[in-house]
Specification:
Blueprint: E1 2-6, H1 12-21, E2 28-34, H2 40-47, E3 52-54, H3 57-61, H4 64-71, E4 76-79, H5 88-93, E5 98-102, H6 117-125, E6 130-137, E7 147-154, H7 161-184
Parallel strand pairs: 1-2, 1-4, 2-3, 4-5
Antiparallel strand pairs: 5-6, 6-7
The protein binds 5-O-phosphono-beta-D-ribofuranosylamine (GRF).
5-O-phosphono-beta-D-ribofuranosylamine is lined by residues 7, 9-14, 80-81, 101-103, 115-116, 168-169, 172.
Catalytic activity: N(1)-(5-phospho-beta-D-ribosyl)glycinamide + (6R)-10-formyltetrahydrofolate = N(2)-formyl-N(1)-(5-phospho-beta-D-ribosyl)glycinamide + (6S)-5,6,7,8-tetrahydrofolate + H(+)
Site (Raises pKa of active site His): 143
EC number: 2.1.2.2
């Protein structure tokens, strides 16, 4: 199985996934693609000798990203901190073969713009006593695809958006690579 990871930022999840599949003979991370030419995730790809590809939102919407994924015979697309909405032609081409991680317990705190610290601020402001991660298939509606996996962690009023983010990142790193492995059969 050939997997591509789409990421817009640091790529700590992408790194954990590359590590996880490094010695697998059933799946490989064949491409790291980003809409940000300076995203640190591209540096992380170099460390693992994974080919990279950068594109603009315009190019993605024009089908350039889909062309690249097909040229690389990608079977699965993993969104790991990818901040653009995936165009319908892409979700349709990778129907049930595209997975995303969201840093909250969907359906709570989902939807456009609800990512990164915004989510953790909202969880804290709501006084929630737990938060967590949701790994789900991607469809045409933001953060509404079939939920594959969720994990939660307790939080208290003493937590800040930053300490909540740290707890959520720890859950992501602990679970995302294995859940992807189970999904793709590797
Ligand atoms: C993660 O919190 C993920 O849930 C969200 O974006 C963040 C990506 O972090 N979608 P990183 O770039 O993998 O470090």
């Amino acid at each position: 199985k050939r997997l591509a990871i789409l990421a817009s930022g640091s790529g700590s999840n992408a790194e954990k996934i590359m590590e996880y599949f490094q010695h697998s003979d059933k799946a490989e991370i064949a491409l790291i693609a980003s809409n940000k030419p300076d995203a640190f995730v591209l540096e992380r790809a170099k460390k693992f000798d994974v080919p990279t590809f950068t594109f603009s939102r315009k190019e993605m919407d024009a089908g350039i990203l889909l062309e690249k994924l097909q040229a690389e015979t990608i079977d699965w697309v993993i969104l790991a901190g990818f901040l653009l909405k995936i165009p319908d032609h892409l979700t349709q081409a990778y129907s049930d073969k595209m997975v995303n991680i969201h840093p909250a317990l969907l359906p709570k705190y989902g939807g456009k713009g609800m990512y990164g610290s915004f989510v953790h601020e909202a969880v804290k402001a709501a006084g929630d006593t737990d938060t967590g991660i949701t790994i789900h298939l991607v469809n045409e509606h933001y953060d509404e695809g079939k939920i594959i996996f969720q994990a939660s962690t307790p939080i208290s009023p003493l937590d800040t958006a930053d300490t909540i983010a740290d707890k959520v990142h720890a859950l992501e790193h602990e679970h995302f690579p294995r859940v992807v492995g189970e999904l793709v059969g590797a």
